[in-house]
Every structure is written in structure tokens, then in C-alpha cells.
Amino acid sequence: MGVDDVYKLVLQACEGGDHLLKDPDIFVAELRKEWANVKPIPSVDSPIQRIHPSGRVARLHLRPCVQMGIDLVEVAQLLLAQPLKAGTHDAFCWAWAGVLRLARRGEIPFDIEELEAVSLTRGATHHGDTYGFAAYRILNDLSHRPTREALCRLGLLP
């Protein structure tokens, strides 16, 4: 994970995946394309990775979903039916300031100068070149009852 990846993680945790959900046709087409490229190799990854301190925002990893034989259409419906996160830039700035504090204290392994050089207004970004394979979508609110019920029905949550 590099600086770009930290930025993306904090942005996703605070603002969700709303930018991807605004056009359902494009969202499903991109999901279908990515789903087709996922190799169903054995994975120890959990399908759900919580990425916000509240525990409500998470990444839904596609590889375990493919490996479990979950239907793409059901995943697309689940993701499109979730409420938008409607996160704020202020929330992102607050969280990024926390990242900077951790780096200054040496509590995370990132260069403070590189982190400080990141523009907080650049918006959504892709992972850095060294991040490796990543295929997931954002779950904006795991406490949203219909989202939880769909995840349980699909076997993704107990």
C-alpha cells in the first residue's frame, strides 16, 4: 500500500462509492467487466472488509464472491439498492488529518512529507501501481437493514 492507496482508502471510508452508483447502467457494465476478469482462485480474503472506524462502511471483495458462486446480478442489485453515503469533504479532511497525526508519530509506515503533499481536492483516484490486484465495490452502510439482509441471504454475513 502506497500513499495513493491510503488516500483512496480514507476517501472511500468517508465518501463511499457514490460516484460509481450515479449511473446504474455504467455501474453494472463496469462491474460485469471486472467480475469476468476475476479468477476464482482460492482466497483467504474475507468478502467484507470494514474500512471505517464506525464499522459501517466496507469493501465487498469480488474474488471471494466469485469463488463462492454468488450471482453477479444479485450483487449488482444489492449494491445499486444501497443508500448513497452522501459523505462530506469535511469528514474526509478530518480523517486525513488523523492519518497525518499517525504518520508524524511514526504509528503508520508512511512518509509524512509524501502524505502532506497529497492534494485533498483531487477526488476519486485509482490504486497505485504497487497495490496489486484489487476487485471490490464499496458498501456504504452495513447498518442499513436491507443491505444487511441481502448480504446475509447471499452468505456474505452471518
Spell out the key features of this protein.
3-stranded antiparallel beta sheet; 8 helices; 158 residues; 7% strand; mainly alpha; globular
Verbal overview:
The structure is a single chain. This protein is mainly alpha-helical and 158 residues long. The protein has eight helices and three strands. It has helices at residues 3-15, 18-21, 24-37, 62-67, 72-81, 89-104, 112-116, 145-153; strands at 48-50, 58-61, 136-139. The chain has a three-stranded antiparallel beta sheet. Strand 1 (48-50) and strand 2 (58-61) form a beta hairpin. Helix 1 (3-15) runs antiparallel to helix 6 (89-104). It is globular, with a radius of gyration of 16 Å. The mean pLDDT is 87.
Note the gap between the termini: 29 Å
Name the beta content range. Answer: 5-15%
- Secondary-structure element pattern, one letter each: HHHEEHHHHEH
Helicity level = 40-55%
Radius of gyration: 16 Å
Weakly predicted, low-confidence segments: none
What integer is the average pLDDT? Answer: 87
